[in-house]
Every structure is written in C-alpha cells, then in structure tokens.
Predict the structure of Pyridoxine/pyridoxamine 5'-phosphate oxidase.
Amino acid sequence: MNLEDLRRDYLMGGLDEKDLAANPIAQFELWLQQAIELQLKDPTAMTVATVDASGQPSQRIVLLKHVDDAGFVFFTNYGSRKARELAGNHKISLHFPWHDIERQVKVCGVAEKISAVESAKYFLSRPKESQLAAWASHQSHPVSTRQILMQQVARMKEKFAHGDIPAPDFWGGFRVAPHEIEFWQGGANRLHDRFSYRRTGEHWVIDRLAP
C-alpha cells in the first residue's frame, strides 16, 4: 500500500470573506443546514478533543445536539474519560469533517456543564433504549464481556419497566463556549480557503489564513 499516492484535488468552489456572515455561529448554522439538505451522513457528528492532566490529548466522535450564540452542546456520561478530563481542564476543541462537500469547521473554546434541568429535558426526548443504555453503561470504564453489559441493560429495563425513565445524575450535557472558529473550504492545488473568527471582547475578528 503506497499511501503517498493517495490524493485528490478539491474543485467544488472557493470561499471569499465578502460571503461570510459577521457572526461565526450564523455562518456555522448556514453550513450545517446545507450539509443536512445535501443529506450528508451524520452531519452533526463532530470530533471532540480533550487533554488529560499529563498533557495527553484524546479524541472521540459525538453528536452535536444544540447550537446557538451561547455555544455548542453535546451530552455524555459525567464519568466518561472526556468528562473527567474536562473537569481538570475546561479547554476543548471540536471538529466537523464534511468531506463530501470539501468543508471543515474547527471550534476552540471552553466547556461547562449545562443545568440539570436542561439535561433532563433532552434525556426525556431520547428513545427508551438509549435511556436504558445511559443507565447501564459505566462509560469509558473496563467491562469484561459484552454479555455483562447486556445483563446490566436487562436489569435497568426491569427496574424502569413502569413509567418514565429519569435522567441519571451522572449523565448530562456540556456547552462549549467558543473563542475561535475556523471555516475551511477545499481549493484546487491545495490552495484551500481558510477563515478564522477570533473573539475580541463582544466582537469577532475575521482573518484569512494561509493554507
């Protein structure tokens, strides 16, 4: 396998500053809506990068569940590796890889837990099977066999056989408040268009970045 020969050119069009929204959240929402309308697979999937106490970065893919001017929201088990690392270091990076339309978005910011009320509201909107899985899984911790995991799911199913399943106190959301958002559009001959929004006080400054 010769990886050096694996490449393609990016020819779907460029990106000009005059076409950008003044607010990066508005620009992100436009791109996300276009990705959804084009029926990209998992358009809300994003890589979440955190750092542990030794400085070791770690990444995983989660789904974006809400975005507004306050930031980007995702949900997780508060005992998971990502949550434990965020407890020690609130700095975080998100990455949206929309390969099919030759676009990427990178977000840098800080993550804070959302309120228990907000988390419970979303939890109650999830399918029952997903609710049971949240109760059954000690996310990121070792489990010897899948059978044990399924047995735990069965116990939770029996426990919550009647009525609504409450949100666990060890599960909830994080909101990522961004201070930098970069928009990347592929260009011919690797001359990609990159624009970085940086927060300065209450305002956003836009810079074109060299590819």
User: Anything to note?
Assistant: The chain has a mean pLDDT of 95. The chain has one domain: 7-124+168-209. Helices lie at 24-37, 81-88, 116-125, 128-136, 146-159.
